[in-house]
Amino acid sequence: MQLYGLIGYPLGHSFSKQYFTHKFQTEHIKNAQFELYPLTSITALPNLLLQTPQLKGLAVTIPYKEAVMPYLTHINDTALQIGAVNCITINDGELTGYNTDVTGFEQSLQPLLQPYHKKALVLGTGGAAKAVQFVLNKLGIDYVIVSRSKQQHKNSITYNDIDKTILQQYLLIINCTPLGMHPNVSSLPAIPYQYLTPQHLLYDLVYQPAVTAFLQQGLHQHTLVKNGYDMLAIQAEANWQIWNNI
């Protein structure tokens, strides 16, 4: 049995479990199984590996995309540059980390971009936000990081700093926080949504619910909106290719 899984905490309604179970069934992939491994601490990872030696690959989600890195034997160059890992291969006790969030985000974002999407607000500072920043740098899109408190990053502001003038300049807004994720579906980033325009593009890395409170506010202002489902599907396929050396 080829065993794969997802580590994070809490896992709740897992995209990965549903996605890979369906993939194995529809593509008639035999002897493959995907399981959830909610770890209350990343320090539980070595014990998980000891208890499940048949594990061939792991996906990594909140809050361990950065914390998992010291446990890895090797880290892919891209993941090293980003400073976050969301995919791990396990081979003869050696763990190699990759970042496929960049693939998922870039491929799902690019078709939506217009020439006026030259500046972005990145809401959040976690591992997923680092992958988003990497892609924006690659695409030549200037960005500012938004967090609840002032960060040491030179391109950092707080939510209180966002006003009409800021939103007139930054027409791409990416939510990299868990705000709005099931079951806390009413939560959303604290930005002045009344200043959004049809030229704005709101991208939410959250996929469940399909239309988050953040995206609902955008729709009220007739903005273009995108949830995180396609990003997750693309990175899941990228994970599968890495796990199976395709």
List the helices and strands and how they pair.
Layout: E1 2-8, H1 15-26, E2 32-38, H2 45-51, E3 55-60, E4 74-75, H3 77-82, E5 87-91, E6 94-98, H4 101-109, E7 119-123, H5 127-139, E8 142-147, E9 156-158, H6 164-169, E10 172-175, E11 201-204, H7 213-220, E12 224-226, H8 229-243
Parallel strand pairs: 1-2, 1-3, 4-6, 7-8, 7-10, 8-9, 10-11, 11-12
Antiparallel strand pairs: 3-5, 5-6
Helix pairs in contact: 4-5, 4-8
What is the number of strand segments? 12
Shape: globular
User: DSSP helix count?
Assistant: 8
Helix content: 25-40%
Order of helical and strand elements = EHEHEEHEEHEHEEHEEHEH
Distance between the termini: 19 Å
**Sheet with the most strands?**
6 strands, mixed
> What is the CATH fold-level name of the largest domain?
Rossmann fold
Organism: Ferruginibacter yonginensis
Pathway: Metabolic intermediate biosynthesis; chorismate biosynthesis; chorismate from D-erythrose 4-phosphate and phosphoenolpyruvate: step 4/7
Keywords: Amino-acid biosynthesis, Aromatic amino acid biosynthesis, Oxidoreductase
Protein name: Shikimate dehydrogenase family protein
Structural write-up:
This protein is α/β, with parallel strands linked by helices and 246 residues long. The protein has 2 domains: 98 residues, Rossmann fold; 127 residues, Rossmann fold (3-Layer(aba) Sandwich), CATH 3.40.50.720. It contains 8 helices and 12 strands. Helix 1 links the parallel strand 1 and strand 2. The longest helix is centred in the last third of the chain and has 15 residues. The protein starts with a strand and ends with a helix. Keywords: Amino-acid biosynthesis, Aromatic amino acid biosynthesis, Oxidoreductase.
